[in-house]
Each structure stands twice: as C-alpha cells, then as structure tokens.
Design goal:
By secondary structure, the protein is of the alpha/beta class. Helices cover 38% and strands 25% of the residues. The protein has one domain: 3-Layer(aba) Sandwich (Rossmann fold), CATH 3.40.50. It contains 9 helices and 10 strands. The chain has a 6-stranded mixed sheet with strand order 6-7-8-3-9-10, sandwiched between helices. Strands 2-1-4-5 form a 4-stranded antiparallel sheet, with helices on one face. Strand 9 and strand 10 form a beta hairpin. The protein is globular. It starts with a helix and ends in a 5-residue tail after the last strand. The structure holds adenosine-5'-diphosphate. Adenosine-5'-diphosphate (ADP) binds next to strand 2 and helix 3.
Amino acid sequence: MMLSAMAAQKSTVDESQQAAAPMFLMENISKVYRTDLIETHALRSFNLRVNAGEFVSVTGPSGSGKTTFLNIAGLLEDYSAGRYFLDGVDTQGLGDRELSRLRNNKIGFVFQGFNLIPDLSVFDNIDVPLRYRGLPAAERKRLIGETLERVGLLSRAKHFPSQLSGGQQQRVAVARALAGSPAFLLADEPTGNLDSVMARQIMDLLENLNDQGTTIIMVTHDPDLAARAHRHIQIIDGEVAEVTRSSMRG
Ligand code: ADP
C-alpha cells in the first residue's frame, strides 16, 4: 500500500532526484581573468559540495580567490569552465533573466560594507529583495516587522542608514537577508568591523537561520567564527585546500 502510494508520488522522477541533490555543487570550476599581458587563475579545479542545511565557513589568505568564489556562487559573475549547480539547477548557459530569477528566489546576501541603499529607509531597504520576489505588500510588511524585531531594530524602521551606527547597519543588512528566509545564504565577513558582542549576536542570528533550514556559506577571517560552522574549508591559490568538521555544531 505504502509502496504503491510512493510509486504514484514518484511519477515525478525529477522531484525525487532533486531532493537528493546538494544545495550547492561546484565541479572543477575555474575562473581566469585575462588582460593583454597576464592571465590570472583566480579559481582552478574548484570542487565543493554543500548539502541542504549545512553551514560552511570559508577562510583563506588575501588573493586566494574568496571574493571570486562568492561572486560566482551568488551568480554575480561568470565562470570560465566547470559546472555549478544551485539547488539542482545547472547554471551553465542561463541568461541574465533566468540568473536573476534564480538569485532572487534562492539566495540571500550579507556582504561586507552592508550595501544598504542610502536614500531608502531601513524598512524599504529590507523590502527590496522581497519586492523582487513579487510578494504581496501585506506579507512583506509582516515579514519586515518580524525580522526587525528579531534583530532588535523595530524602532528604527523609519531611519535612514546614515542615522544608524555601523553595528546597526550590519544588523539591517542581516535582516534584509533573513526576511525572505532564503534557501541559501552567502555571507562575506558578516561580522567585519563589529565589536565582539555584536559579532556574536550576528553569528547567533545566522545560526538561528541555519537551524530553520537555510544553507549558509560564510567567508570570514575570524578563526573562532569559522570554527562555529559545521564545516570549515580553506581556499589556497584558488583551490579548496582543507576541509575540517567542527565538533561544536551539527
Ligand atoms: P580574495 O577575495 O581571496 O582576496 P580574489 O577573489 O579577490 O581573492 O582574487 C583572486 C585573484 O584574482 C587575485 O590574484 C586577484 O588579483 C585576481 N583578480 C580578482 N579580480 C580580478 C579582476 N577583475 N581582474 C583581474 N584579476 C582579478
């Protein structure tokens, strides 16, 4: 009885295959920057598989390829060769519109320098990705209220970024990424320039989001934060050099 029910459900073979697919899969990704004089291999034979629900931290020396990796992972930059699957979708050959749709539907970003829009209020900054997703106004308002409460900034909804401290701006940037409960979150030094208390709070928020099912890849230079992830990888010379599993989580 159960088997036949399962067989009926499985008429969509694609769906069952997708459930088994990793959230993030890069196979032999390479990225070459070419100028008239030199070729720089920012990534070479880059392989990384991240399962749904994992929290992976990334460290590496300056110039090792972390930014290039994040930009490609976030569908903000093209790769030269290899394959990149996001939530089972092969990103090769997708056009700009398909890439932005995939990005808006799946990925949340917390980037260094916050990237808040200066002439939009806190509320409207958080609203931007939700609008891109086409959520109705009432739903967006509810989500923004809830998220601002989570990051302790409900009373700042009408403020502009310039009226906030660095730590508060970073919390708005995190709120913006959290509001849409993205399947996949990319964070670049999310605690950079914050004092240790604030850094821990931001990290707690990210862990909270991860506990709710969001897959996270976070670049950081902070070894203590890197150790809090399920898995810690290092990028050296454009390749994944080392993978360690943390005993602290998962
Ligand atoms: P990281 O973020 O780890 O500091 P990057 O990804 O920024 O490393 O850079 C990796 C390598 O690629 C470096 O050697 C850098 O100089 C080079 N690179 C990055 N972006 C460009 C670009 N737009 N043009 C040429 N070379 C680049």
